[in-house]
Amino acid sequence: MTIFKKIIDREIPADIVYEDEECLAFRDINPQAPVHLLVIPKKEISAVDALSPEDKTLVGHIFLVIQQLAKEFSLEDGFRVVTNNGLLAGQTVPHLHFHLLGGRPLLWPPG
Ligand code: AMP
Question: Which amino acids bring their CB within 6 angstroms of ligand 1?
Answer without folding.
Answer: 3, 14, 26, 28-30, 38, 84, 90-93
